[in-house]
UniProtKB/TrEMBL annotation:
Entry superkingdom: Bacteria
Location within or outside the cell: Cell membrane
Gene3D superfamilies hit by this protein: MetI-like
Record lineage: Bacteria, Pseudomonadati, Pseudomonadota, Betaproteobacteria, Burkholderiales
InterPro entries the UniProt entry points to: ABC_transporter_permease, MetI-like, MetI-like_sf
Pfam families: BPD_transp_1 (PF00528)
Membrane topology summary: Multi-pass membrane protein
Organism in which the protein naturally occurs: Robbsia betulipollinis
Protein name: Sugar ABC transporter permease
Domain ABC transmembrane type-1: start-end pairs: 84-292
Primary location: membrane
Length: 301
């Protein structure tokens, strides 16, 4: 024992503990660094580049010309922008039907009955189809000359050729695979339910709607949050079905912000103006995601 410094033996374990803590932090940083680098390259850098590009006039080939907020000024004075924004709101309102419909289907499929696996595969099929295939299928379905809708109604309705119906027809087509995706999320969540809580609720006499509302749905809150966020993002970035089924028409009546952004960049070579649309769309997404994230964290507390 060191008589000159009695605290020395106690200091050594502290130094060992701090060294071990530093090694743990270093190991954590090393494991996290590849993911952080990929997020920085493929997420953060494109966002910053789009914001930077939105202040320029650029066709992708000639030198960039700095124009400040001119792209945003033109955007907010564009009639097509407000049409696309209105359609995005309609998409968002109707697309939020997917989580409750997915939950209903998941509750139906979460049963131990003969042949349920075949039924599950049938409900799962829309999720594995690409948006182009879904768009072509529903384009044939809506065709007023030979489509199945004409056979059902007895007369043809030009759903994709009428400005009053085209947006709702495309959203109906998009709800099919989105409901399947939400169903998969809820089926996964149902497998992780606490069986003891459910059994205790049954012993207390809970069943049906009371069981669903007070026991099952609270445990499915993280799954519901994920389903809502994914659905909101899907509604705001809807593009493929619009490109296949209507091309934004007739007379730009079915265009949305994502398709308007593509239209300006690819057809008219207005990359700066397209970046401004992307920044506005990103801001709208962030408002919804932050709102639901804060709400979920508040409920968790």
């Amino acid at each position: 024992m060191n008589l000159e410094n009695p605290a020395l033996p106690a200091a050594r374990p502290r130094r060992r503990a701090s060294a071990a803590a530093r090694q743990q932090r270093l190991a954590a940083l090393l494991f996290l660094s590849p993911a952080c680098i990929m997020v920085g390259i493929y997420v953060v850098w494109p966002i910053l580049s789009s914001i930077f590009l939105s202040f320029y006039n650029w066709d992708g080939m000639s030198p960039r010309e700095f124009i400040g907020f001119a792209n945003y000024t033109e955007l907010f004075h564009s009639h097509t922008f407000y049409t696309a924004l209105k359609n995005n709101v309609i998409w968002l309102a109707l697309f939020l039907l997917a989580p409750p419909m997915g939950l209903a289907v998941a509750l139906y499929l979460n049963q131990a009955v003969p042949g349920i696996r075949i039924v599950k595969s049938l409900f799962f099929a829309p999720f594995v189809l690409s948006g182009v295939v879904v768009g072509l299928m529903f384009s044939w379905f809506y065709d007023p000359t030979f489509g199945l809708l004409k056979v059902v109604l007895g007369h043809g309705i030009p759903v994709l050729g009428d400005a009053r119906y085209v947006t709702f027809g495309i959203i109906f087509a998009a709800l099919w695979p989105q409901t399947a995706y939400c169903m998969i999320l809820y089926l996964t969540g149902l497998t992780s339910l606490d069986a003891e809580q459910i059994e205790a609720a049954r012993m207390e006499g809970a069943k049906g709607w009371a069981m669903l509302r007070h026991v099952i749905l609270p445990q499915l809150r993280p799954t519901t949050f994920m389903a809502i966020v994914v659905t909101i993002i899907g509604a705001l970035r809807s593009f493929d079905l619009i490109a296949v089924m209507s091309g934004g028409g007739p007379f730009e009546s079915s265009t949305v912000l994502a398709y308007y952004m593509y239209d300006q960049a690819i057809k008219y070579y207005r990359l700066g103006y397209s970046a401004a649309i992307a920044v506005v769309l990103f801001a709208i997404m962030m408002v919804y995601i932050v709102y639901h994230l804060r709400r979920m964290l508040r409920q968790e507390r």
